[in-house]
């Protein structure tokens, strides 16, 4: 069996990256929860520079930020699909949307714990 090589592989991947940036831009500019979380991500990143956090702390903080923004993006997509499929309230659709929102809640709690572990000792030292 002979496999045909896709000659447009690189061009196709570049298109995928363009679509991903487009989607990220739409999320940040149209969804209020993402706007808030993106703003918090910027502030926490600035705090990382101010408090000169370690490379390990940068890695964990970056993963926490990515986790929250990524899960929020998936939650938004689930909500948009659910609203498209069933615009009126439906108990099962509400259940699905609640579960997706719960996933964001867990990610946000994780990010809050990470931020607290990284920054509490640094802020505490400022006031002692």
Automatic annotation (TrEMBL):
Keyword Cell membrane part of the UniProt annotation: yes
Naturally occurring in which organism (per UniProt): Flavobacterium litorale
Similarity comment text for this entry: Belongs to the bacterial diacylglycerol kinase family.
Full protein name: Diacylglycerol kinase family protein
Annotated transmembrane regions: 34-53, 59-78, 99-120
Localization per record: Cell membrane
Membrane topology, record value: Multi-pass membrane protein
GO MF: kinase activity
InterPro entries reported for this sequence: DAGK, DAGK_sf, UDPK
Biological classification of the source: Bacteria, Pseudomonadati, Bacteroidota, Flavobacteriia, Flavobacteriales
Alphabetized UniProt keyword annotations: ATP-binding, Cell membrane, Kinase, Lipid biosynthesis, Lipid metabolism, Membrane, Nucleotide-binding, Phospholipid biosynthesis, Phospholipid metabolism, Transferase, Transmembrane, Transmembrane helix
Main location: membrane
Presence of keyword Transmembrane helix: yes
């Amino acid at each position: 069996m002979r496999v045909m090589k896709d000659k447009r592989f690189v061009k196709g991947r570049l298109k995928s990256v363009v679509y991903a940036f487009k989607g990220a831009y739409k999320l940040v500019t149209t969804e209020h929860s993402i706007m808030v979380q993106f703003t918090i991500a910027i502030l926490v990143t600035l705090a990382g520079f101010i408090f000169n956090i370690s490379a390990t702390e940068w890695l964990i903080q970056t993963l926490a930020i990515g986790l929250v923004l990524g899960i929020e993006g998936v939650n938004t997509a689930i909500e948009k699909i659910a609203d498209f499929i069933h615009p009126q309230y439906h108990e099962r659709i509400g259940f699905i949307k609640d579960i997706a929102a719960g996933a964001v809640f867990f990610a946000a709690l994780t990010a809050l714990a990470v931020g607290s572990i990284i920054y509490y000792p640094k802020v505490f030292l400022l006031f002692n």
